[in-house]
């Protein structure tokens, strides 16, 4: 071993040791402010402040001798840019909310939590499987707080009018329901759609839906431990899961197929569902309140997304929210102590109920909920999956090109998938 390698290893060991000592409180980091006052900790997120104001207030009262959380709600549209700019200027928050699709982009701004401070065994026991995406080497990027799974919104009036008693549980049932629920006028124009699939420009959550199809076939898209792109690989499957997913997705916008139910001329899928002209809509659980607010008279419900009949796994795509500590925070230990309180069982359950999302903790999910809608969200959270996206916006464009180039015949499906894989690999590099 060279002298240079020995120095590098020594530096890494010292860095880990310092981090452990800070988190453990041996080195300065967590102490009351001047005059014995609680340490004030700034926290940024996109959760509605009005829904969690009382929760944060009670949290601060309980921990008044140690720290006080000052929460700031940010708009989701410019959240990342505002966060990055403020962190660069040294005015960013101590704690902020990070989703799994931004781990690869932003983890260099995060203070990693070593396993010595939060054991890996505890982490895996406490949180759902998909939370493993926040593990990086011997560290944890952030501690999971909430999960926003994709669910199936279905119009109960349209279903009952077509003598369909319940939403589909499997994709073969989904196909039949779509054919029965689509309506056309005399000119052949779609006036009522069974489902919104097959396009990217007017199908909200198209990237997430396509990811869900692939993940249900047990293809992780990108391996989280090695960052190897496995999109387009068969694995143990007879057929390539990605090719099958793209083919299935495109069928619904192909006029030559019996499943034809969608095209570019129709309104955005979420707006059409709210208007009562779309029978089934794949959306995040967090969209529930918006749908209710925009059409209080809409008779709808939510259900778990359909699954592959006799499939190896049950899965849906989800957005996971984790709390991370800023690398530039001057009070890392206080922030870490606050994080441990924010993700404990009691707070996690109360937070989930306040914002209408699933908790990331296994023990809270095991306890269930009496709320009608939230019970479905809980079930969907348990089977939620996601993957490490190198850049959300660019991934969406890559998936869009994969779908459109194969639908128009510009490329064979196998070629479109291979092209998407190559572009993902370049992004990760």
End-to-end Cα distance, whole Å, is: 28 Å
Radius of gyration: 23 Å
Low-confidence stretches: 3-22, 24-30
Strand residue content? 15-25%
CATH architecture of the largest domain: 3-Layer(aba) Sandwich
User: What is the strand tally?
Assistant: 14
Which secondary-structure class do the elements indicate?
alpha/beta
How many structural domains in the coordinates?
A: 2
Summarize this structure briefly.
By secondary structure, this protein is an alpha/beta fold.
Give the helix/strand layout:
Elements: H1 3-24, E1 39-45, H2 49-62, E2 67-73, H3 79-89, E3 95-99, H4 103-106, E4 113-114, H5 120-126, E5 135-136, E6 139-140, E7 143-155, H6 156-161, H7 171-181, E8 183-184, E9 190-195, H8 206-216, H9 241-251, H10 269-274, E10 278-284, H11 288-294, E11 300-303, E12 316-325, H12 332-342, H13 345-355, E13 358-359, H14 362-367, H15 372-382, E14 384-385, H16 392-407, H17 413-428
Parallel strand pairs: 1-2, 1-3, 9-10, 12-14
Antiparallel strand pairs: 3-12, 4-6, 5-6, 7-10, 7-11, 7-12, 7-13, 8-9
Helix pairs in contact: 2-13, 8-9, 9-16, 16-17
């Amino acid at each position: 071993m060279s002298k240079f390698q020995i120095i590098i290893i020594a530096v890494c060991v010292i860095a880990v040791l310092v981090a452990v000592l800070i988190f453990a409180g041996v080195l300065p980091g967590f102490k009351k402010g001047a005059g014995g006052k609680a340490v004030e900790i700034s926290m940024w997120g996109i959760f509605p402040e009005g829904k969690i104001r009382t929760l944060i207030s009670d949290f601060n009262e309980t921990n008044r001798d140690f720290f006080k959380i000052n929460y700031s709600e940010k708009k989701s549209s410019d959240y990342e840019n505002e966060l990055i700019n403020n962190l660069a200027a040294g005015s960013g928050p101590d704690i902020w909310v990070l989703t799994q699709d931004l781990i690869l982009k932003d983890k260099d701004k995060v203070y990693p939590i070593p396993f010595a401070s939060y054991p890996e065994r505890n982490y895996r026991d406490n949180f759902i499987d998909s939370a493993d995406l926040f593990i990086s080497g011997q560290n944890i990027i952030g501690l999971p707080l909430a999960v926003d799974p994709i669910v199936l919104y279905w119009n109960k009036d349209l279903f009952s009018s077509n003598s369909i008693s319940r939403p589909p549980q499997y994709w073969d049932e989904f196909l039949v329901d779509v054919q029965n629920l689509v309506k056309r006028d005399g000119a052949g124009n779609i006036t009522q759609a069974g489902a919104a699939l097959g396009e990217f420009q007017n199908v909200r959550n198209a990237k997430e839906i396509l990811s869900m199809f692939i993940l249900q076939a047990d293809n992780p898209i990108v391996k989280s431990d090695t960052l190897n792109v496995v999109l387009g690989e068969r694995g143990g499957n007879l057929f390539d899961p990605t090719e099958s997913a793209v083919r299935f997705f495109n069928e619904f916008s192909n006029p030559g197929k019996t499943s034809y139910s969608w095209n570019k001329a129709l309104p955005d899928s979420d707006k059409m569902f709210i208007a009562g002209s779309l029978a089934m809509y794949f959306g995040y659980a967090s969209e529930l309140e918006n749908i209710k607010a925009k059409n209080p008279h809409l008779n709808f419900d939510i259900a778990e997304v359909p699954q592959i009949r006799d499939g190896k796994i049950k899965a849906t795509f989800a957005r996971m929210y984790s709390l991370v500590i800023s690398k530039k925070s001057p009070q890392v230990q206080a922030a870490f102590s606050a994080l441990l309180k924010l993700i404990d069982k009691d707070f996690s359950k109360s937070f989930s109920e306040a914002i209408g999302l699933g908790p990331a903790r296994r023990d809270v999910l095991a306890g269930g909920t009496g709320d009608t809608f939230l019970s479905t969200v809980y079930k969907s959270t348990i089977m939620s999956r996601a993957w490490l996206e190198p850049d959300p916006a660019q991934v969406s464009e890559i998936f869009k090109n994969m779908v459109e180039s194969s639908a128009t015949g510009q490329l064979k499906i196998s070629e479109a998938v291979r092209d998407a894989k190559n572009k993902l690999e370049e992004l990760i590099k």
